[in-house]
Automatic annotation (TrEMBL):
InterPro entries: Ribonucl_H (IPR013520), RNaseH-like_sf (IPR012337), RNaseH_sf (IPR036397)
EC number(s) given by UniProt: 2.7.7.7
UniProt keyword Nucleotidyltransferase present: yes
Entry-linked Pfam families: RNase_T
Alphabetized GO MF terms: DNA-directed DNA polymerase activity; exonuclease activity; nucleic acid binding
Domain Exonuclease, first and last residues per copy: 14-181
Listed name of the protein: DNA polymerase-3 subunit epsilon
Source organism (scientific name): Canibacter oris
Keywords recorded for this protein, A-Z: Nucleotidyltransferase, Transferase
Enzyme class label: transferase
Length: 184
């Protein structure tokens, strides 16, 4: 499945960027943090973030060394079942971007499947894929590298969901400002 955005999605005046952090390799159901950042006209206009408590069986934290979260940080947090409605309402039909959409889309679908929720966005795209096509010649297309090429002055805490989501959104906003798109 390709998450390469359509020209219309890239040109959308409003979009949401998302990032998930997961506790372990078991699967997306181990999501322990989500960050959603809404952009309008290239500017951050709203943020929705939450720690998430994975369900029993998914609560082993093997990625604490990456994102700094452990079970005690999320034990009192909402489950995806409790949070999914807020995420769907925040998106409200606009395109959604993640820097590694294959990962974040899988996490989102795994959560919806596990909890029986229906919140997965109908328009889900990848800033990594967009950057590879529209910003040729970068030495790396990792989030930190692409953001440095697009907004070198922006400093962020990598591997925190809301910071990574904002970085993704800033990349899309940069592409909107600096890349001429042929709309279908």
């Amino acid at each position: 499945m390709s998450y390469y955005p359509t020209a219309a999605a890239l040109a959308a005046p409003a979009f949401v960027a998302v990032d998930f952090e997961t506790a372990n390799r078991i699967g997306g159901v181990s999501a322990c943090e989500i960050g959603l950042v809404r952009f309008e006209q290239g500017k951050v206009v709203a943020v929705l973030e939450s720690k998430l408590c994975p369900p029993p069986g998914y609560q082993h934290f093997e990625f604490t060394h990456i994102h700094g979260l452990c079970f005690s940080d999320v034990a009192a947090a909402p489950s995806w079942e409790e949070f999914a409605g807020a995420a769907a309402a925040f998106i409200a039909g606009v395109p959604v971007f993640a820097h590694s959409a294959r990962f974040d889309a899988r996490v989102w679908r795994d959560l919806d499947r596990h909890y029986g929720t229906v919140s997965y966005p109908s328009k889900f795209y990848c800033s990594y894929e967009a950057a590879k096509r529209l910003l040729p010649g970068l030495s790396s297309y990792r989030l930190t590298s692409v953001l440095a090429a697009c907004e070198p002055e922006h400093v962020f805490t990598h591997h925190r969901a809301v910071a990574d989501a904002e970085a993704c959104g800033r990349i899309i906003a940069h592409l909107q400002r600096h890349i001429t798109l042929e709309l279908p």
